## 1
Amino acid sequence: MILINLLPHREVARKRRREAFQASLFASFLVGLIIAGVIYWWLQMLIADQQGRNQFLSREIAVLEGQIKEIATIEEEISALISRQKAVENLQADRNMPVHLLNELVRQLPDGVYVSNFKQSNNTVMMQGVAQSNERVSELLRNLSNNTPWISKPELLEITAANVSVGPKDQRRVASFKMQFTLMRPSEVAKASGASSAKTGVSGEKQP
């Protein structure tokens, strides 16, 4: 019987398989490393691209913020100019308000009513006077309330009985009164007149 020793061949085959496994393992490691490197490079490219976009957006936002500040400054300057223009217009209009006040008082004072004093503070006018009777004072209030666009919110503050000398031995009983009202600006009068005209026109259109 012939005996063959196979141990060296088995050892060689085992060694070859081990070397092949190690080679395939090393190759897999290299392939994985290459793939990881490619992925890392691709992610870095994406990050760099996004950072570039972010920087571009930041620059554009800074430019827009500067333009917005310039626009806001221009708007403030325009508002200031409009305010100054309006103040000048109001000042010019207010110069004629005492004239309108005197004209309206002459028109609206009933017979038997006399003004002794009046004082204007801004648009509020305080007026004192005497009347032949309480009815004359009531008539004055009605006239100031309904007959003139230059005066609004007339209010009787005080009315008392008093005696007035009309001769050496002649005294008459009168009503001493104090009232206040608001003197309207020309722009307010024009606006109120326009609204009243529009309302009148609408009422006329509704009539058959």
Note: The CA atoms of residues 72 and 78 lie 10 Å apart.
## 2
Amino acid sequence: MAEPGKLYLVSTPIGNFEDLSTRAVRVLSEVDEVVCEELRVGSTLMKRLGIQTSITLLNEHNESEQTPGLLKALQQGRSLALISDAGTPVFADPGLELVRGAVLIKARVIPVPGASSLMSALVCSGFSLNEFHYAGFLPRQSQARQVRLKKLKEIRTLLVILETPYRLNALLKDVQKIFKASTTTVLAMNLTQDNENFYRGTLADIQKHFSLNRFKGEFVLMLNNETPVSGRNKRV
């Protein structure tokens, strides 16, 4: 029986193409197959790099159907590179079933690190990063989202929340219903792009700003939910 192939988890740019590493380019050109979340995005990337590697689609709609065939390819010794539309694959993106299956068949799973909206937002936030809680994407419906936010409020540390661009204002409204208006907040927008920006202030300030100034783009929301020291909230 052939030795299992390798599964590379290749990070791609989140906004600035120059963030794609030389190692990532080499891996994408050397593997037998590139597995992408959306064919249009994957094909555009490969065309821009001048790479002819074949592409297979793997997303939330076909993950269960596609994974067995990809695992069979790994068992036959073929090498695969998994990419997402932007950033690090598997992290809030499809691919977990493939990674778990690769581990079970003892195929090597190899990270090829790169741009990360989460890390980029955190290191520029000004908050202490000794500890933080990644809450990820919250429920779509307001009532369910508020239930989740109430649970998050009990976690007394820096909270990091992601959401789709068009739900920013709905998210901020719900957050302000649960957290104190004075909560120190940082909103990182369009990271690594020309229009990148960081909005810093109280939760009330930021909610008011975006209620008056509509925005549609990628963002990371960070809330300082640490236990107050000497009766005063820590500031960034």
Note: The first helix runs from residue 22 to 30.
## 3
Amino acid sequence: MIKLYLMKISGLEPDDIKWKKHVSPKRYKKMLSYRQKKDRGLSLGVELLLNAALQELYPGIRCPVTWGEDENGKPYLPDYPAVYFNLSHAEEYAVCALSDAALGVDIEYCADIDGDIARSYFLSQEYEYILGKPESERLEAFYNLWVLKESYMKACGAGFRLALDAFCIQIGDRITLIKDGQIQPCSFFLTQFENYKLAVCYQGNEDASITPIFCEQQNLYLTSKKREE
């Protein structure tokens, strides 16, 4: 079971004191540490989204939930060890993925980049994969690789302690990850909306049915609905 929630944080006022009771003390303190209002809004938004998702899927969980971090900085729920989650945000969107097994999620806004970034951080075969695309498709190819890589790094709990060129992503009929010469037992969900790329990495070799659920902020609570086509 994998559930993927997204919320646009436009209009969210992170400096309103009312939010203090809707997030954990740890999150509230972290949010206030950001100098830019936009960053405070994203930090607030991911935990509001987490709590809304937990209330929908696990009504017995008391929110705002208390979360901790393991030795690598990966967040977890100490009071609910069978519930796994991962968070990400970019520009105007916050993302929360929930499952009954470890997973990672990453979202990126597809801004223009210097092509040398791929050459510097990716493996040569990944860089060649990008160059093999028509010029108009290379930016998309770059972000496909980036979100897939970061979702895996977050799923395994290493984050950027694991170098981007320590493993290889191969995009074909299936997305395959090769590390230390071996195909790894993980699968991916990759999608695009507006000008964003989003990937989820999860355990196992079977394709999971994942439908992103877009949430709306209304007053002091969140309601979710599937995005209309």
Note: The two ends are 23 Å apart (CA to CA).
